[in-house]
């Protein structure tokens, strides 16, 4: 059976599948197979026209999820999933040729560092034509760039990438990936990290405009809760390779349920009050938690959690529905500990 031939057939057989459907995704890097999986039991789906944010601290597995979808994980990496489907196409079953055909055409990646994505010695137009695919010449490229307000770049396609600012280059890459190739799914990995706030806003506006115009589904990875709040419909909060909370932007920011989500929100500088610790639960609650039985089968957030119980030490919580969200916690919805917290009272 040739998966490259069978992919469209699989898609036809699945009636109105979500654009992206992921169930129980696990990824383990080769260099350390006995350690915790880099991604563990990640499940979410994405509809057309929807923007899903993935947020979490460095190393929580956000980029690994995107690379698993694109099948761009390094050799020897172990990937398994109960389901890893793009429009009903089982991605894990596609051969490299079929994946190459999907990437860049139907699924596009917006890179974190636009400057390193293009060569500084090859004219911009030539590189963008290659990225955009067959049938796109300089005139069409210039037209697309003008459509999103990048007139100056449209007139300089014979120039070089280093002649553009980081923000211009990121908008050029997003425009060419989305408008020229017309993918169905855009995976954006920290697309605004290297940009200042004004330029960041331009890039986010462009993403929203393209979503509205083309009905793209977008997965947006970001450390920045402000970016997530301005752009996304739903958010998955990642910790230690797991999604610990999956909720609408409104619910997540208005009524966070997982202690880690609460900690993330509390660490946003705008919410920081003078005299209040930036990460309230990291140090304050360490002393009583040492009394808990530690077990590799327990909750991955145990050591840092102000609400951890004996159960959390022995039984890993599953992602379960709670109100309109899904939460991976035995004790969801606890209020943020007061400045004189449990740790101090018990110490
Ligand atoms: N190529 C690799 N080989 C081995 N381990 C890796 C590799 N890439 C990532 N990891 C490990 O996998 C885990 C998840 O990394 P990942 O880059 O997905 O996290 P992230 O949330 O995207 O982090 P960041 O926000 O810093 O990009 C980390 O422990 C990381 O060290």
Folded structure, characterized:
Keywords: ATP-binding, Cell membrane, Membrane, Nucleotide-binding, Transport. Pfam families: ABC_tran, oligo_HPY. It is a peripheral membrane protein. The chain is of the alpha/beta class and 347 residues long. It is 37% helix and 19% strand. It is built from 16 helices and 13 strands. Strands 7-8-9-3-10-11-13-12 form an eight-stranded mixed β-sheet, with helices on both faces. Strand 5 (83-86) and strand 6 (89-90) form a beta hairpin. Helix 6 (138-147) crosses helix 8 and helix 8 packs parallel to helix 9 (197-214). The longest helix has 18 residues, at 197-214. It is globular, with a radius of gyration of 22 Å. 39% of the residues are buried. It binds adenosine-5'-triphosphate. Residues 29, 31, 38, 56, 58-64, 74, 223 line the site of adenosine-5'-triphosphate.
């Amino acid at each position: 059976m040739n998966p490259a031939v069978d992919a469209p057939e699989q898609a036809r057989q699945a009636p109105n599948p979500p654009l992206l459907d992921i169930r129980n995704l696990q990824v383990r890097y080769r260099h350390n197979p006995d350690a915790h999986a880099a991604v563990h039991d990640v499940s979410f789906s994405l509809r057309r026209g929807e923007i899903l944010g993935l947020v979490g601290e460095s190393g929580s597995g956000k980029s690994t999820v995107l690379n698993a979808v694109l099948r761009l994980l390094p050799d020897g990496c172990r990937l398994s999933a109960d389901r890893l489907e793009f429009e009903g196409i089982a991605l894990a079953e596609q051969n490299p040729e079929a994946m190459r055909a999907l990437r860049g055409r139907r699924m596009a990646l917006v890179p974190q560092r636009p400057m390193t994505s293009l060569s500084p010695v090859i004219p911009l137009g030539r590189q963008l034509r290659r990225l955009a695919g067959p049938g796109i010449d300089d005139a069409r490229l210039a037209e697309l760039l003008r459509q999103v307000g990048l007139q100056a770049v449209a007139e300089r396609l014979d120039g070089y990438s280093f002649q553009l600012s980081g923000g211009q280059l990121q908008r050029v890459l997003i425009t060419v990936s989305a408008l020229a190739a017309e993918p169905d799914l855009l995976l954006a990995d920290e697309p605004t990290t290297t940009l200042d706030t004004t330029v960041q806003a331009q890039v986010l506006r462009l993403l929203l405009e393209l979503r509205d115009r083309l009905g793209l589904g977008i997965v947006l990875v970001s450390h920045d809760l402000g970016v997530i709040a301005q752009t996304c419909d739903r958010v998955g909060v990642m910790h230690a390779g797991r999604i610990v909370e999956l909720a609408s932007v409104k619910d997540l920011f208005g009524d966070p349920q997982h202690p880690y989500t609460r900690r993330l929100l509390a660490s946003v500088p705008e919410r920081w009050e003078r005299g209040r610790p930036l990460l309230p639960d990291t140090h304050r609650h360490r002393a009583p938690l040492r009394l808990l039985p530690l077990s590799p089968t327990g909750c991955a957030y145990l050591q840092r959690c102000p609400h951890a119980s004996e159960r959390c030490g022995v039984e890993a919580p599953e992602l379960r529905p709670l109100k309109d969200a899904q939460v991976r916690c035995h004790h969801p919805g606890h209020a943020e500990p007061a400045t004189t917290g449990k740790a101090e009272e018990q110490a």
